[in-house]
Design goal:
single chain, about 200 residues, mainly alpha, 10 helices, elongated, disordered C terminus
Amino acid sequence: MEELVVHILKEYGFLLYPFITAWTFVEGETVVIVTGVLASEGRFRINVELLAIAAMSGSFFGDQLYYYIGRKYGAPLLKRWPKLTTKVEWAFQSVNRTPATFILSFRWVYGVRNVAPFIVGIAGVPRVKYFVLNLIAAAIWAHSFAWGGYFLGRQLEDWLGDSKWWVLGGFIAFMIGFAAVGAVRSHRKTRTETPAENPTE
């Protein structure tokens, strides 16, 4: 990821922010963290606030699109692929129980963020409510990782010098692994609890 961002900065510097917007439209925070760390080095002219705004825009508009797909086509898709229902059942329970909390937090849950807007759309959360909460969540998420990457990069530079990229890579891998384990455990818990809710006659 670092090499890709550096290549864009060297060859097509003016396309950095559109690239961040396009990437975060479909992907997560790794590119935002890496670019924030690069900004801390001072080798390239990177405005961290513009980075955050670009990431916020991509994440917001991507999740708005998935929300409307879920709202309009979600039920037929679930009927067509019934296995999808069991995989996201626990997410349905969360959004039905506390929709605002779910919308504000799903970006931080690995394995859920890509399907969460789709689920919110199927659940019938009102458009205006989702628009406002999604905008707030995207802003918090983008600024956290853009500025977090920047300040993390400055600290790692002071402590580790050129070795900081190895530590950063390990840290990101740990975050992904930890979140994935949490998602799997939550999914298994939901599967074991579901039969108890439907007692046999």
